């Protein structure tokens, strides 16, 4: 019997035997690999078993029915918002021309009819390209994957979302035919300028039906899905043509165009519409995003999910011309401030491959990736710096679009970022991501503004809102500062404190001390208070009128001390201010409470209309898809005595004084620029210039502008309401008042006396009205609020007028609505009212019960259910702080 050979016994060929441990290692490794593979398969099977049943039903695809969207119009019937299946004109597969189908397949997925939903060869090509270029420059999404994503999934880039996308892709492929999938894609895909589907895109960009497009035009449209914001032929035709040429080349390579057809398509001039205003209602020529979103919220509160499908048309009170003027004035004001402020540095810095500018396609791919993180903002365009020096900056917007910034004035704005001693986080260099903007004839580099702004304008006679801007860019966050931001108004509040004084016996001629004022910690009960005038400038005595013109803080404090803070607090509520946000303390004389721009402009409209407080409203009427009126606003109107907020004589005198402010005082530039005698207004700047305001009016239009940072901080020591916000207000009002004749002065009310050129209420004639007011700080006050104390001066106390009506109170006999029309007051939300925040998709909570088609909405149904509104308060913790205003 033979024995086993000992280890390492030489083999017959004379070579040493392979060690047995190596065999064991290989066997174990193989077993481990097989085990890991089996575990992976089990895990994958388990994941599939769990995930597949949770995939959405494909009913939305198999029974695809176009919905008629909610459309929002201005008063002059200009479309400013469309919510739902936007700009969609659904075509059957056989209605889509073959040249358009070929163009799309050439651009997006030329193996569409060969693969089973995932193009694995394309995945390998994309991976290799990305490895070679060192960045994620190519993707491998098929048309089916894009359909899955567009119908059911979010765009977040997570592995779980990608996994569900693959599973849903396979489910779609197993359920629908290829022609059905392509039909869905071509009707669903977003193509810029709010056009969904190629039929809508053909009308938007070319002004023709899809059946009429040529190969050149089909290739142009097919190039848009890659990056709608960058390949948009209206805003970026050169870039769109580059993509078009690529698509035409693919069509030729795939045999869908012969050489003659290719050359003819390459040579065909493109008749692209000049702008969204020409697109036959398929794009918005007016920036009305903020009012349109308020309307959407209101309609969803009534109709629920049917809001986006039943063809509701809403006609607002917005004036298209005024709205666009408001948008431009706010943008100009914010950009002007941004230029003056210290340049904070580029948005980002990336590693820019050497000589990438010599490869236009690679540069385009890189910029496409940046666009998602740094999107354009209207006329602010994101780009990457190729070269930077103190004399010129070269910025790439595309492989064939290089912008050179060499204007000396423009370069001075970013000079601190171009010098050799520039800090690393501020320096502009190759690879810096910046925004460029065409300012006049010259390009400039400018950072995306951090400053925010709001403008709201209304008709004082009935409260109709004519323009509303709630921020610099709606697409960068739709928080509406015009109606949601609580800020300190500063000196914008002084006219209301002064009017309370007139009601209590002071007159425009009353002499008041402007000497420094202070209270000790013992007097305040907390800490000492030492308010100051702007510039620390003081005068011995001023008349009440002079003090308003000069916006003197010490005078305002003494006025409130005389009439008592409690009376001032109550008086503010007559104009719509929230009593809880205006505590009965002396600092409210300087605006140390909080209000929204909507509240402020509504209050100023009282001076413009003779003393009436009307309720602002945004929606005039609502109709169904057939034009039947479902709701009609019945606005309150000035002249209805139930709406009176203040004695008509006080309103007349305050109007006279505010016109003086706009002619001789801190707002004198208003009269100089507008050259009208019917303009009144008041500046407002809070302590350290945290908030700046201007509120002004004519009898035809009241407008408030606010600017500040969302997280309150100083705008800088040189920023005032008389500069920044007044400039924006003037730019807007110049456009809005164009063609509006100057109003004749209102007749002087009865019971108003005139003596020595100044006005007196008849119950406080000369000799009985308060002639002078000086409350020295050494007077014992009793307490900080000085309740009931007049500092030793006689104070006349006439019976208080009737309380001001509450918002929404009956406004007298209004015209009856037409038979069958629901009569509803349709306001915009007041500050603090709840605003329904709902996405266009199915809401998380159960929606409000929708009104069945053909039925009217119950009058008692609220427009804004109780969901808290985000607030932005000035001052740490929201407490009142001393304001040095001007």
Automatic annotation (TrEMBL):
Penicillin-binding protein OB-like domain mapped to chain residues: 343-450
Coiled coil: none
GO molecular function: penicillin binding; peptidoglycan glycosyltransferase activity; serine-type D-Ala-D-Ala carboxypeptidase activity
Pfam families to which the protein is assigned, alphabetical: PCB_OB (PF17092), Transgly (PF00912), Transpeptidase (PF00905)
Keyword flag Cytoplasm: no
TM regions (residue ranges): 25-52
Subcellular location: Cell inner membrane
Biased composition range(s): Pro residues: 796-808
Membrane topology: Single-pass type II membrane protein
Pathway stated in the Swiss-Prot or TrEMBL entry: Glycan biosynthesis; Cell wall biogenesis; peptidoglycan biosynthesis
This enzyme's EC code(s): 2.4.99.28, 3.4.16.4
Domain Penicillin-binding protein transpeptidase: 457-706
Top-level division of the source organism's lineage: Bacteria
Domain Glycosyl transferase family: 79-251
InterPro entries: Beta-lactam/transpept-like (IPR012338), Glyco_trans_51 (IPR001264), Glycosyltr_51/Transpeptidase (IPR050396), Lysozyme-like_dom_sf (IPR023346), PBP_transglycosylase (IPR036950), PCB_OB (IPR031376), PCN-bd_Tpept (IPR001460)
Catalytic reaction(s) noted: Preferential cleavage: (Ac)2-L-Lys-D-Ala-|-D-Ala. Also transpeptidation of peptidyl-alanyl moieties that are N-acyl substituents of D-alanine; [GlcNAc-(1->4)-Mur2Ac(oyl-L-Ala-gamma-D-Glu-L-Lys-D-Ala-D-Ala)](n)-di-trans,octa-cis-undecaprenyl diphosphate + beta-D-GlcNAc-(1->4)-Mur2Ac(oyl-L-Ala-gamma-D-Glu-L-Lys-D-Ala-D-Ala)-di-trans,octa-cis-undecaprenyl diphosphate = [GlcNAc-(1->4)-Mur2Ac(oyl-L-Ala-gamma-D-Glu-L-Lys-D-Ala-D-Ala)](n+1)-di-trans,octa-cis-undecaprenyl diphosphate + di-trans,octa-cis-undecaprenyl diphosphate + H(+)
Family note: In the N-terminal section; belongs to the glycosyltransferase 51 family.
NCBIfam families linked: PBP_1a_fam
Protein's name according to its UniProt entry: Penicillin-binding protein 1A
């Amino acid at each position: 019997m033979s024995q086993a050979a000992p280890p390492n016994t030489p083999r017959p060929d004379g070579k040493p035997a392979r060690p047995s441990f190596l065999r064991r290692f290989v066997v174990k490794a193989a077993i481990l690999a097989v085990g890991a593979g089996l575990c992976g398969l089990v895990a994958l099977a388990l994941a599939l078993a769990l995930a597949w049943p949770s995939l959405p039903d494909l009913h939305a695809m198999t029974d695809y029915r176009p919905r008629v969207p909610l459309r929002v119009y201005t008063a002059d019937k200009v479309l400013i918002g469309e919510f739902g299946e936007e700009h969609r004109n659904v075509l059957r597969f056989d209605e889509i021309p073959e040249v358009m189908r070929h163009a799309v397949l050439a651009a997006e997925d030329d193996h569409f009819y060969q693969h089973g939903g995932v193009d694995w060869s394309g995945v390998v090509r994309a991976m290799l390209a990305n490895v070679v270029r060192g960045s994620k420059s190519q993707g491998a999404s098929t048309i089916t994957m894009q359909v899955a994503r567009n119908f059911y999934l979010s765009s977040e880039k997570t592995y779980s979302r990608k996994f569900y996308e693959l599973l849903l892709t396979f489910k779609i492929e197993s359920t629908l035919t290829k022609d059905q999938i392509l039909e869905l894609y071509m009707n669903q895909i977003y193509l810029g300028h709010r056009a969904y589907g190629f039929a809508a895109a053909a009308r938007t960009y070319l002004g023709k039906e899809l059946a009429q497009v040529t190969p050149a035009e089909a290739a142009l449209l097919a190039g848009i899905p890659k990056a709608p914001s960058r390949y948009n032929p209206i805003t970026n035709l050169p870039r769109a043509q580059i993509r078009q040429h690529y698509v035409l080349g693919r069509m030729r390579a795939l045999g869908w165009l012969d050489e003659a057809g290719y050359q003819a398509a390459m040579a065909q001039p493109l008749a692209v519409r000049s702008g969204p205003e020409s697109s036959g209602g398929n794009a918005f020529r007016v920036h009305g995003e903020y009012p349109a979103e308020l309307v959407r919220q209101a309609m969803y509160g009534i109709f629920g999910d049917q809001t986006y499908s039943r063809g509701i048309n809403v006609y607002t009170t917005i004036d298209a011309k005024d709205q666009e003027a408001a948008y431009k004035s706010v943008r100009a004001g914010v950009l002007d401030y941004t230029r003056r402020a210290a340049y904070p540095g580029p948005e980002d810095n990336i590693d820019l491959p050497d000589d990438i500018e010599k490869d236009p396609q690679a540069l385009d791919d890189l910029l496409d990736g940046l666009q998602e993180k740094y999107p354009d903002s209207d006329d602010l365009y994101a780009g990457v710096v190729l070269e930077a020096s103190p004399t010129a900056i070269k910025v790439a917007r595309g492989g064939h679009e290089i912008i050179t910034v060499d204007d000396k004035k423009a370069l001075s704005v970013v000079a601190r970022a171009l010098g050799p001693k520039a800090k690393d986080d501020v320096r502009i260099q190759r690879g810096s991501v910046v925004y460029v903007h065409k300012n006049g004839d010259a390009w400039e580099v400018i950072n995306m503004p951090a400053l925010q702004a709001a403008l709201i304008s209304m008709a004082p006679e009935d409260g109709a809102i004519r323009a509303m801007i709630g921020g610099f860019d709606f697409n960068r966050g739709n928080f509406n500062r015009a109606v949601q931001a609580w800020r300190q108004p500063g000196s914008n509040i002084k006219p209301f404190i002064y009017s309370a004084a007139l009601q209590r016996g002071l007159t425009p001629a009353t002499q008041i001390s402007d000497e420094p004022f202070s209270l000790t910690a013992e007097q305040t009960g907390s800490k000492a208070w030492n308010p100051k005038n702007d510039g620390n400038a003081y005068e011995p005595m001023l008349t009440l009128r002079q003090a308003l013109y000069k916006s003197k803080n010490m005078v305002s404090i003494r006025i409130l001390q005389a009439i008592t803070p409690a009376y001032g607090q109550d008086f503010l509520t007559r104009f719509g201010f929230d009593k809880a946000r205006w505590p009965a303390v002396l600092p409210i004389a300087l605006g140390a409470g909080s209000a929204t721009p909507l509240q402020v402009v509504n209050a100023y409209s009282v001076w413009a209309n003779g003393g009436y407080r009307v309720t602002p409203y945004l929606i005039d009427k609502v109709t169904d898809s057939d034009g039947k009126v479902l709701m009609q606003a019945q606005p309150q109107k000035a002249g209805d005595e139930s709406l009176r907020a203040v004695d008509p004589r006080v309103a007349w005198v305050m109007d006279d004084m505010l016109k003086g402010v706009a002619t001789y005082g801190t707002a004198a530039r208003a009269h100089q620029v507008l050259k009208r005698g019917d303009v009144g207004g008041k500046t407002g700047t809070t302590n350290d210039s945290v908030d700046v305001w201007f509120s002004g009016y004519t009898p035809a239009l009241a407008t408030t502008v606010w600017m500040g940072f969302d997280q309150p901080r100083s705008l800088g020591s040189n920023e005032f309401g008389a500069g920044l916000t007044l400039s924006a207000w003037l730019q807007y009002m110049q456009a809005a008042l164009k063609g509006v004749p100057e109003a004749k002065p209102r007749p002087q009310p009865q019971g108003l006396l005139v003596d020595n050129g100044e006005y007196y209420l008849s119950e406080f004639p000369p000799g009985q009205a308060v002639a002078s007011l000086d409350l020295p700080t050494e007077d014992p006050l009793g307490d900080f609020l000085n309740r009931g104390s007049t500092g030793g001066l006689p104070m006349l106390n006439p019976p208080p007028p009737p309380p001001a009506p509450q918002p929404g109170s009956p406004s007298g006999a209004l015209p009856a609505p037409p038979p069958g029309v629901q009569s509803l007051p349709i306001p915009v939300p007041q500050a603090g009212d709840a605003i329904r925040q709902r996405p266009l998709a199915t809401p998380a909570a159960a929606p409000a019960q929708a009104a069945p088609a053909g039925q009217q909405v119950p009058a008692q149904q609220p427009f804004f259910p109780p969901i808290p509104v985000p607030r932005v308060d000035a001052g740490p913790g929201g407490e009142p702080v001393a304001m040095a205003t001007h």
